[in-house]
Amino acid sequence: MILDVPFLEASWTSEFNGAEDVSCTVDVNDRRIRRLGLANAASVAKSCLIIEDGNLCVGGPIWDVAYDRDRGTVQITGKGLWSYFDHRALLPVMGDGDRLTNPDGSANTAFDTNITGTSYENIVKRWVMQANLWMPEASRIPIAYGSDIPGVFQRNIKGAETKLIGDLMKDITGVEQGIDIRFQPRRTTDGLGYEWLLSCGHPRLTSTSVKRWDMSVPKSPITGLKVEVDGSDMASQVWETGGASSDTAIIERAIDGSMRAKGYPMLERVESLSTTVIDKDTALKHANETIRTSTQPRQSWSFAVTRDATLGSDWDAGYPCSIRTKHDPFIPDGWHDLRIMTLAGSSGEDKITVKTGAVYG
Known about the structure:
Blueprint: E1 9-14, E2 21-27, H1 31-36, H2 38-41, E3 48-53, E4 56-68, E5 73-79, H3 82-85, E6 113-118, H4 120-132, E7 143-144, E8 153-157, H5 165-173, E9 181-187, E10 194-200, E11 211-214, E12 222-230, E13 237-242, E14 250-255, H6 258-261, E15 268-272, H7 280-292, E16 298-306, E17 320-325, E18 334-346, E19 351-357
Parallel strand pairs: 7-10, 11-17, 13-15
Antiparallel strand pairs: 1-2, 1-18, 2-5, 3-4, 4-5, 6-8, 9-10, 12-16, 13-14, 16-19, 17-18, 18-19
């Protein structure tokens, strides 16, 4: 059931590879709010908060409701659907008497989830589908899936390790040839409800069009530009360690000599993977992905830009953008290609806050 909520203020973020934030504050003395039966309608961990801003639509489960009697307000706070999978272990449907360990204490392999010879997109899709099977069909979360995509990857997850699906999805976004993942809410075709589209990049969620903002013209739509150049994660050699859960040391490294050619000193990163990573190839994929983005400073631009009708269609989290500067005392002249990492907006402000990162391909 969709309930339209009259609000005093509302705010949202748009992002990928994680859960966006949504929040609204309402006046409990408003007769329209009283008719909604808010204490029940905004049940935490059961109801969802969806915010639409032009073509942009974000939202997911409500996790916090704060009532202030003196002020006569209720603040409703939710997160994107990814947050739901931070509360779900990767397990096939189990009976009430089933156990993840055998009488001798060894792991019961009957509840492992083994997926082989397919794409990362399909692996994520099957994890999510399996989680939904725990609930009766009528109460399953409405999720729409794309077509199957062929691939050569595998993930074998032991049930006894009770790994959270949210963590497993995060791992897939961080390996070599890993993918972007996003749950995007949208109206159902009958207009009576919402469903979430599980969108996976190939490997990146992006757009063929590039949103361009020109700061060299009078009355530029961009204000508050800040640029941060951060070299704290730079490395020409990356070490990845794992394997603790199997009492076997897994240590892999990736090397890139391009920094040395540019005159940088030797820099290294040492990262500890999940203790359940016991496969050398997986550790090496993590190392290769880390080194891919570590041989140059991390450059992030943040700014505010005036909301326009193309928000959510031509520019959104994951999409490319380009900013032109001229006669700036710090930034070189020309167009600068970036990738939108997050957006944030609110009902009381006509500006959208944009944070970008470098384009790594």
